[in-house]
Amino acid sequence: MASFRTWHCLLATSCLFLLLLASPAHGQLSPSFYATSCPTLGLIVRTTMIKALLAERRMGASLVRLFFHDCFVQGCDGSILLDDVGSFVGEKGAGPNVNSVRGFDVIDQIKTNVELICPGVVSCADIVALAARFGTFLLGGPSWAVPLGRRDSTTASLTLANSDLPSPASGLATLVTAFGNKGLSPGDLTALSGAHTIGFSQCQNFRGHIYNDTDIDAAFAALRQRSCPAAPGTGGDTNLAALDVQTQLVFDNAYYRNLLAKRGLLHSDQELFNGGSQDALVRQYSSNPALFASDFAAAMIKMGNISPLTGTAGQIRANCRVVNSS
């Protein structure tokens, strides 16, 4: 009898150990995380995203950028969604985010729709990750199985948002270091930068490139200067220009062809093809859209794995803009 009890105890301990290894508490994200608790999650997000893109196709690009800006600060934890409330200071007022990052209303709508079907189950951080996937796919880009199981942060960091998000004026070495600090390779940097095949940027982000840099096509610079005055603060700082002048609302590989022609809108864009380490990969992506699509999807999954909160860490926010009251 004693030997039986010993065997049973060992078996139970082994099973518990295996269970813990498979548990989200160990940081393992899985595309099937909500298969039982919210099986219609993908359909809800997709339907809401279709409606949002029908209202404004640019929103697809904005939500990809929102995911990037979330993951680079404290990890992919939904911290960027938090509003300043009372003494709580969030990340929305950081230099790279203020009056720039957008799509919060769409995330709110997705959250509302999800809560109607699966209350208290799905994190805002996972909703941002799914919105980025559908924002890419619905504009013609690749799709991928999004690893899920993130939980929401109860904190945010204005300081890290100001320091960790790369500037559009960054050089290649600075970009490589910034991405490397997040566990992303130079190849990931080049693939993820391809998100700039969709969307727009403000004049204040590319003014220096079109007026001061020499690694830019003169005709392209002149075109952009028409809507971006040389002097800051003269009313044109927030004027928009397409990151990809050819197919600004279609997710394709034209971004890389633009770089070959020295028509990258941002200084940081053109740095990827300027006699440096990423020139060869830019050439490959410019002529091989399937390779770019595959590498972009893989890099998005990798970025989505930056320091997620899992298991009992963080919380599942009822409102993506505020921490749950205790």
TrEMBL record:
Q: Which reaction does it catalyse?
A: 2 a phenolic donor + H2O2 = 2 a phenolic radical donor + 2 H2O
> Biological process GO annotation list?
hydrogen peroxide catabolic process; response to oxidative stress
What are the cysteine partners in each disulfide bond?
A: 38-118, 71-76, 124-320, 203-228
Q: Does the keyword Repeat apply?
A: no
GO cellular component terms listed in the entry, alphabetical order: extracellular region; plant-type cell wall
Q: Which SUPFAM superfamilies match?
A: Heme-dependent peroxidases
- Keywords (A to Z) from UniProt: Calcium, Disulfide bond, Glycoprotein, Heme, Hydrogen peroxide, Iron, Metal-binding, Oxidoreductase, Peroxidase, Secreted, Signal
Catalytic site positions? 69
What is this protein's function?
Removal of H(2)O(2), oxidation of toxic reductants, biosynthesis and degradation of lignin, suberization, auxin catabolism, response to environmental stresses such as wounding, pathogen attack and oxidative stress.
Site (Transition state stabilizer) location in chain:
65
Q: Which domain of life is it from?
A: Eukaryota
Q: Calcium: is it a keyword of this entry? A: yes
- Chain residues that bind Ca(2+) 1: 70, 73, 75, 77, 79, 91
Q: Which GO terms describe its molecular function?
A: heme binding; lactoperoxidase activity; metal ion binding; peroxidase activity
Q: Which family does it belong to?
A: Belongs to the peroxidase family. Classical plant (class III) peroxidase subfamily.
Under the heading PANTHER family, the entry gives: PEROXIDASE, PEROXIDASE 72-RELATED
Copy out the cofactor comment: Binds 1 heme b (iron(II)-protoporphyrin IX) group per subunit. Binds 2 calcium ions per subunit.
- EC primary class: oxidoreductase
What does the entry list as the binding residues for Ca(2+) 2?
197, 244, 247, 252
- What is the protein name for this chain? Peroxidase
Cofactor(s) for this protein?
heme b; Ca(2+)
Q: Where does substrate bind?
A: 166
- Annotated signal sequence is 1-27
Plant heme peroxidase family profile domain sequence ranges:
28-324
Q: EC number(s) in its UniProt entry? A: 1.11.1.7
